[in-house]
Amino acid sequence: MKIPRTLGSRSFIDTSYIIICSTINSNTIAKCLFSISSTNIYYCLLSFTTFNYRNNKKIFKYEIYKIIIRFVYYRFNYTWGGVYIQKSIQRIPSFSYINQVPLEINKILPEGASIALTEAGKVAYWNQKGNHKIIDLVGLNTEYPAKNTISIQYLEELSPDMMMYHQVGQLDTNLFATANENVILLENADKKFFNNKKEYTNKERKLLAKTINASIISTEYLQHYFDKYDIFLVFFYQNELNQTYSHVYAFKKRLQIKDKIYKILEESFNEKTKMSFFEMLEKVKKH
């Protein structure tokens, strides 16, 4: 069975061994060995399965490095305080709109749709049947962005049917915020407000992190082709300092799926509609 990284199983296991180890009164070596056997070796084995387009060799090396680092850390650290455990517990995945939205969106996109995104986890994973072309603008899964600094010309050549990206603080979304709305569908009048906070030269962009550059270019592209896309801003809570409309979705207007997308995004915030991973897999099989 393939276990997706996107569902947070890793966080749960990491948290589990920390909590269990904190109750063990044996020596630190025992705690260290327990932490290794319950997490890292498990993920070393899983690295040989399909991990959502990721480079399995890199994952394997990463886990080996973590085994070494954790062995050293736990060998010499005798403090198992509540602060460390508390921070780890916060990593246990909770309900989030993003958990099943990608599944529903993949279902209604037409065959062969092109999807350009920066968040290449869930959206790419739930393209289970490979019906759509995925372009990772950050470059973790797509060769060109991995080797080059993407530009608006690159997106113009792609002309994606769908875009989804994290705006990483580059948009002033407070200009769009209204009373307790989780989803905002932009109107023609919003075009003048849909801009990056700062303008960058090509030379400056090459020095930026790929995630930031991808966000900047995506916004520039959509601003330029605003009348071609239905654009949604979606509230995404990450922490107390980041409570904003972090996610941007855009769909070609010619697809005529604006109302369906709006409904999917709105309903995704209703915890009563949430499904388990296995329920979602069953839904894919039936579709």
Account of the protein in words:
By secondary structure, this protein is α/β, with parallel strands linked by helices. It folds into two domains: 5-89, no CATH class; 97-286, no CATH class. Helix content is 44%, strand content 13%. The chain contains twelve helices and six strands. A six-stranded mixed β-sheet has the order 2-1-3-6-5-4, sandwiched between helices. The longest helix is centred in the first third of the chain and has 21 residues, at 56-76. It is globular. The model is unreliable at 1-29, 49-54 and 78-92 (pLDDT under 50).
Helices and strands in order:
Layout: H1 9-22, H2 28-46, H3 56-76, H4 82-89, H5 101-108, E1 114-117, H6 122-125, E2 133-136, H7 143-147, H8 152-158, E3 162-166, E4 183-185, H9 202-205, H10 210-224, E5 229-239, E6 242-252, H11 258-267, H12 277-286
Parallel strand pairs: 1-2, 1-3
Antiparallel strand pairs: 3-6, 4-5, 5-6
Helix pairs in contact: 1-2, 2-3, 5-11
